Amino acid sequence: MPVIRNAVIKFWMVASLVTGIVIIGEGQSQIPEKVIAQVGTQVILESDIQECYQSTSKYTKNISKCSILKDLIIEKMLRLQAKREAVRVPASTIWENLDKKVQYVCNSAIKGNYEDHKEQTKRELFAAFKDKLVEQKMRELIENRVDITPQEVKKYFQTILPDNLPFIPDQVEVGQIVKILQPTIEEKKVLLQKIKRLRQRILGGEKFEKLAEAYSEDYLYGRSCWETFRPFELSAVAHLKGLKIGEISKVIESTHGYHISQLLGKYDNNGLVRYKYRNIFLSFKSANKNARFIIRRLDSVRKKILDGEAKFGEVAKTFSDDKLSANTGGLLTDSKTNATHIKITNLDSYLFLTLDTMRVGTITPPQSYRLNDGRIAVRIVYYKSKIPGHALNFKQDYDYIRQTALEKKKTQAIENWFHKNKSNFLIKINPKYQSCSLLKK
User: Fold this and answer.
1) How many domains does the chain fold into?
2) What whole-number distance in Å separates Cα of residue 281 and Cα of residue 203?
3) Residues 103, 109, 113, CA angle at the centre, nearest 5°?
4) Are residues 14 and 153 in the same domain?
């Protein structure tokens, strides 16, 4: 596929430049059979459309290949426009998104030979990820110019027929005050001695990778993927810069635990130096004595709130270790709308089950749970309010309606941008798709 795509690009780079959308017919330069469209020097293959159609048609009815082609053309136009306006995405952001995709494959049950070639694959995919993120940023620049008034929201709601009003499941407002357990001095001392002994065993000739598989607690990457380019914490890998290939680092302390690393390689890509290394990580477990102390503190805070001596939101802002919810007075927010009312089906299973045992207005006793990065924390949960499931209505669901209307307006803004600017791009379309009226409006 890369060979075909490169050949097609070279073909089109020598094609004559014209303005606007051109339907290529008899007597003109013929587009190769598998190429459906060209935008500038970028091409859209028939396989691109087919793949999008197969994946999209499973979830969306009445999707057409013409509409898919139009979306792909818009993507190409946005990338070219981003280049014209010098829109850039930091290399570190590109690597972060790329590494998440690579790590998913690495953690999957079906690896094949991918593990042996993943770093080469990441380098090859860098440009594709860069193109996608730049296109998304250009799209956001256009969409962010869009706003919506309350009158427009009401008008949008009035266009929905009564029989078509969707059912909104139960929505809740939930708050939390979180304290992350910190290691005791004694625990840190014991853990430090353990990782020092592992380092000495490696220096004595034992295989780093064998000890990593046996002892490492790398929650973010998993034991099978301890070899990676992306550091999950800067303080844990900043020392790699001074290491020689194959050298073992000194013991490094981070907020999560202790690390030792072995440098395997490094290279410079687009000005960002990346390190390939093995890592052994031992995490702080937080001793029972420390946990009991935190539980007593949270229990005291809970009592003051219930007795009216303190307000939940004010305590969350100053006391909670969850800074994201602390900024909203401890209330969790919907990731899409930023509203404090969250569909109960969007809560994690543990929080869902917790609310099932609570009444509105109550606060749980302190309860321990594990953060996404593996650390242990203790929290109290506040069940502030609940809106029972109901058919969509303007009064209760204004935030949801506003967000839906705004998204529709943003989509229209991209549509308007396309029709206004398509004459500024070289766009050629295969005769097979010349009947697509969506492209001619």
Assistant:
1) 2
2) 17
3) 75
4) yes
User: Which residues, 6 or more positions from 293, have their beta carbon under 8 angstroms from its beta carbon?
Assistant: none
Strand pairing of 42-45 and 171-180?
unpaired
Give the residue among 212, 216, 253 at the shortest CA–CA distance from 236.
253
pLDDT tens by residue, 125-150: 778 888 899 999 999 999 999 999 99
What is the rounded average pLDDT of the residues 103-115? 44
The residue among 399, 401, 407 whose CA lies nearest residue 173 is 399
Q: Are 173 and 314 members of one domain?
A: yes
Q: Are residues 294 and 169 in the same domain?
A: yes
Are β-strands 42-45 and 35-39 bridged in parallel, bridged antiparallel, or unpaired? Answer: antiparallel
Note the pLDDT of residue 212: 87
Co-location of 343 and 302 in the same domain: yes
Q: Which of 34-38, 103-107, 359-363 has the lowest mean pLDDT?
A: 103-107
Q: For the CA atoms of the chain, what is the radius of gyration?
A: 28
311, 380: one domain: yes
Map 385-396 to HEC letters: EEECCEECCCCC
Say if residue 166 is exposed, middle or buried (CB neighbours under 10 Å; 0-12, 13-18, 19+).
exposed
pLDDT at residue number 407? 94
Domain of residue 434: give its range. Answer: 1-86+145-164+401-441
**Alpha-carbon span 270 to 274, nearest angstrom:** 10
pTM of full prediction above 0.85? no
First to last CA, the chain: 33
Lowest-confidence pick of 23-27, 132-136, 318-322, 350-354: 23-27
Instruction: State how far the Cα of 301 lies from the Cα of 441, in Å rounded to an integer.
Output: 62
On whether residue 308 sits in a domain, the answer given is yes
Q: How far is CA 141 from the centre of its chain?
A: 19
Residues in the chain: 441
Beta bridge partners of 22: 428
**% of the chain surpassing 70 pLDDT:** 78
Angle between helices 114-143 and 91-107 (to 10 degrees): 130
Round to whole Å and give the CA distance between 53 and 48: 9
